[in-house]
Amino acid sequence: MLRDKIVNKQAGILTYGMTPPKESNPPEKVAEISQKQCERLKNLDIDALILYDVQEEADRVEQERPFPYSPMIDPTVYSHYLEQLNVPKILYRCVGKYTEPQLTDWIQADRGQDRYSVFVGASSGKQEVTLRLSDAYRLSRQLNNRMLFGGVVIPERHMKKNDEHIRVVDKIKSGCDFFVSQATYDVEATKDFLSDYYYYSKESGLEMVPIIINIAPCGSQKTLEFMKWLGISIPKWLENDLKYSHDVLDQSIRLSQKIFEEILDFGLEKGIPVGCSVESVSTRKVEIEASIQLVKDIKSIIDKKLLVAL
């Protein structure tokens, strides 16, 4: 069970992440989309499905967004369309756009059931918020002991500020049970963060919680530009390999596998509970199907590595 793996701080958690459909879709279209997604995902051996809560982030960067922003269906609402998928749902919550009463009601709903969430803070210091991350942590701890909540970790930010491990440890002390990274293409940045996380936790006498590394296939130049706009750090050599590849998607998949395998090996050597989340940042069918295959490939890698580690 997902709860056991998180509570016992196990390596190898595997999830699939996706964004709900656009809010502008009529109900029958949403039902059609969700049915297709259920068909794609029903046989995947995953621990949970992640549903993102999207915010516009227009004030985060000055460059024009490669794909126009459209409000998405609330992940809680969309999770009901996916009930036939018998896996836990980890629901993202961009807490800054909710009032305290709104978040309180959401946290207290279904209190008798296991719940999972990732609380996300403001996308930039310029963003106006009605609720802070610390408030969301406090409310969740006080109001629902069946909810395990996580945070977002950005290893690339560690390259500039060298304090991502301290942010993570502070969030653990505030109640975070696990973390999901931003999509990862920079192995060195991730290993630098994990190394500091390991040694800082060891010095502090703090048990490490799972770090779920997010990987996302890239199938086109447009997707690559969108990833960069999102703030995903893509090393120049890797960007060149993708840009000049005859098959960008295939190259991206192979690179993603190598990246995660190297990070998993690094984590297992130090006893860091590393997991993986696969997502498709594109709505193109070929990229979505590639991400599904990537989940299966990553599952094989995880099973093999954990067996050797035992």
From TrEMBL:
Q: Pfam families recorded for this chain?
A: MTHFR
Pathway where it operates: One-carbon metabolism; tetrahydrofolate interconversion
The cofactor required is: FAD
Top-level lineage group: Bacteria
UniProt keywords, alphabetically: FAD, Flavoprotein, Oxidoreductase
Presence of the UniProt keyword Oxidoreductase in the record: yes
InterPro entries found in the cross-reference section = Mehydrof_redctse-like (IPR003171)
UniProt lists the family membership as follows:
Belongs to the methylenetetrahydrofolate reductase family.
Can you name this protein? Methylenetetrahydrofolate reductase
